[in-house]
Amino acid sequence: MNQYWILVAILLPIVGGISVRFLPYKKTWEMYVFLEAIMITTSLIVWGLILGGPTEVFHVVHFFNDLSISFKIDGMTMVFAGLVSILWPLATLYGFEYMEQHDRQETFFMFYSIAYGVTLGIAFASDMLSMYFFYELLTLSTVPLVMHTLKREAILASRKYLYYSLGGAAFALMGMVFLMVYGDTLEFTLGGVLSADKVVGHENMLLWIYLFAFLGFGVKAAIFPVSEWLPTAGVAPTPVTALLHAVAVVKAGVFAIIRLTYYSFGTEFLRGSWVQNVVMALAMFTAVYGCSRAVKESHIKRRLAYSTVSNLSYIIFGVTIMTPMGLVGALCHLVCHAVMKICSFMCAGAFMHQTGKKYVFDMDGLGWKMPIVFCTLTLSGMGLMGVPGLAGFVSKWNLAAAAVDSKNPMAYFGVVCLLISALLTAIYMISIAMRAFFPPWGFDREAIAGSTDPGWKMCLPIMLCALFTILLGLFSSPLVDFFRDVAAGIY
Amino acid sequence: MGQSVLILFAIFVPILFGVCILAKPGFKTRKSLIATATVGLVVTTILSFAILYIGDMQLELFAIGENMNIYFHADKMGCIFMTIVTIVLPLVGIYAFEYMGHYEQEQRFFGFYLMVYGVLLALSYAGNIVTFYLFYEMMSIFSMPLVFHFRTKEAVMAGLKYLFYSLTGAYCVLFGIYFLNQYTTTLDFTAGGTLDMSKVAGNEGLLLIVAMCMIVGFGVKAGMIPLHAWLPNAHPIAPAPASAALSSIIVKMGVFGVMRVVYYLFGAEFLRGTWVQYTWITLTLITVFLGSMLAYREKVFKKRLAYSTVSQVSYILFGMALLHPQALTGSLLHILFHAVIKSALFMSAGAIIYKCGVERVDEMRGIGKKMPKIMWCYTLCSLALIGIPPASGFISKWYLATGSLATELPVISWLGPVILLISALLTAGYLLPIAIDGFFPGPEFDYANLEKKDPTKQMLVPIMILAALAVLLGVFPNSFVDYMGELVQLLF
Prior knowledge:
The complex is a heterodimer of chains A (491) and B (492).
Chain A: H1 4-22, H2 28-51, E1 58-62, E2 68-71, H3 75-98, H4 105-124, H5 128-146, H6 152-182, H7 196-199, H8 203-218, H9 229-232, H10 238-265, H11 267-270, H12 274-296, H13 300-321, H14 324-355, H15 366-369, H16 371-385, H17 391-405, H18 409-437, H19 456-474, H20 477-488
Antiparallel strand pairs in A: 1-2
Helix pairs in contact in A: 1-2, 1-4, 2-3, 3-4, 3-10, 3-14, 3-19, 4-5, 4-10, 5-6, 5-10, 6-8, 8-10, 8-12, 10-13, 10-14, 12-13, 12-18, 13-14, 13-17, 13-18, 14-16, 14-17, 14-19, 14-20, 16-18, 16-19, 17-18, 17-19
Chain B: H1 5-23, H2 30-54, E1 58-65, E2 68-73, H3 76-99, H4 106-125, H5 129-147, H6 153-183, H7 197-200, H8 204-221, H9 231-237, H10 240-266, H11 268-271, H12 275-297, H13 301-321, H14 325-356, H15 367-370, H16 372-386, H17 392-406, H18 412-439, H19 457-475, H20 478-491
Antiparallel strand pairs in B: 1-2
């Protein structure tokens, strides 16, 4: 019985989102209430499911052989679904105020809501095919969000996003086909599904296939050389950038890579092979590359997008350590980065919404005019830097602990990369705080005269995320223990 | 808990006062601001003296995560640093009440000053490396606004340079912490080291690299070559009270970090005779010499003092690097003496800038006639820093030199004292001419327009107290030497 609720959780936001277009509203706030109610209900259902614990596989549609759309709840599901179900209602609330001035709000919120259902679909999917199905759907449902403003650059950006994602998915599909042939089943199983007798003699080919599939899913996770779409997609309205391009979509990519590495190919098969070195090197390079691009970028959202590129690679670095501890580190950063980055994006959006400006050099002195926004932005920046007491420190600690524990010299070097990129993070985040709070003498006071903090609908999510950043930084033990159980296969 | 809650109070009272001062939109009068700051300083000082009096208390707060406890332990080593902080910071604060009156935004200055006070105390009490690192980063961040207080372009750049150098150092340290987490039995500071030898076996090479990383990382704050370049930029550009605090206390926290890592985590035995020890000694000797050289040719007074700090702090690091009880005693004494002397020197430099507006050494001819009291203090402190008996610097340098000779390291055992002596000569060369020209300006000096410009008591008294300490600590060093001797026994 429990399992039908999974379907409800996935379908409710999709159906609810579509109905937004057709329900007759007199006032916009009625739509807001309706949407928020749907989001919160869905999240409550999701949390109910998570607290209910792991379930058996539940087949919804059966195609042929063992191909089906099916769902289950396991440890990874709990992490990812739990994360998005907390952040989605908050980001939606933020979106209501942010989108006030925009046209075509119904369309926007329709796709915003659909994307929630689809993301949950990815989280609950129990095998490669189901995940792949929702993965493609996620691309399709978020393209309209990227091109929402219908300006030329938005359309170009969404086209780029679409091509990159579809191309990546094609590679991933290839991996799935090989898994079908060389694996016992497509269902995600911690430790991998490759069948030992079928694999014999084909190891090297399978490693190549893993690399392709990794890069395919790596498109959404914005790994170098396929990361360019992410900064470009920053033209989307901020609720989209904050939630989808810092959490849902990109983390779906990472989630898929975890599923591929730990639950399909299996770390036993991959660890110590050349392909591990290749993917780890890619992750390390991207971590430093993203940060150094971010330092050069003065458009605030593009700067944060490059920062996302870098931080996603931290997570992937944790994944490529290919030990249970590596998975713990990766999951820890997956959650911590989500909270911090959504917070900084929301602050950046608040800045853009309140002042109509986009660049870091327009922020002079604004810290004293918009204290809530800039204090939280500084806080989340410090979190990203890894100041102890905030979420980033804990997750980097776990990543580094895993790297040191793995006894892999390359992973030691990865720790160096993490720290270099932490220093670069300090440069690009602290320079924002410096401008905002300690502008040089004689800055243009007129330009910021009328700026104030935004209303409660924007401030509340921002402050809650900042609170999460602090709480995760101070009391991470229960969460990390849970991740350990996940990595050990208890959930 | 019980009494040990005092630690929490001592840390958070000044931080809270600082936050309140920063958050308050504006004080009605200057007096109320000063009063608030005074209350903050006094209460904290009393609290930390109470802790010093009770001694050896521990407080375990909570765990951020596995192996990441927030844990305070006021042990003997911590007490030394706490004493220095509580002697120097309140005196500098009193001095600042007058000094900062001339400048804008003093509210912000005192806010951050009090926060730094709390953080420095927290660093002294930190009982494990995670807590230490937490407050170490906070110290870098909170002291940065003190550096760029004047907010000229130059000051802001110096502030950022300070921060990024500090963070580079901090991340080197963090790199080490990650490895120590794996290879030690506990991250709590334990005299003699906590390396888990069963795990270390076979990985010595790796751990030596890690140790070097951590020494260089903390060495950034201590102004050790190769990462010293921020110091001569950041210290002079800050307002004089901030330079005094930075140069006498905050650099010492880098030293403290090295102390904790080498003697309380790795253990002296592990590093003795390795390439790490030799590299470290070489770096410190180069720094001692180059710092003095650069100070000697520097014409801007405060910059000269900043270079002097670079050189003097490496005396301390040199003593620590020898891994010898006597040399370490010398280091500990020099930590104390240098803190007292350098803060007094920076404050007198500030007084000269404040009253006469001169910043360059060559403009200071006859300054002793204008500000005799300040210059007397300055001269006493200079003599102490050079190491002329019976002033304090002599004692510490004596221990450093004899300690160096007592080690049986090839070349270094005699080269060290030679370099210390050369550097002492250079110290005399860059400090004393100011006093000589100041008191004996020569016949061309315009005596007719001479006016006494000694500052008010509020600025003068702190300098005088510190100058008196600089001399008296050298005359009566026994109790300190005994205390430090006992402490050093624990570490070897």
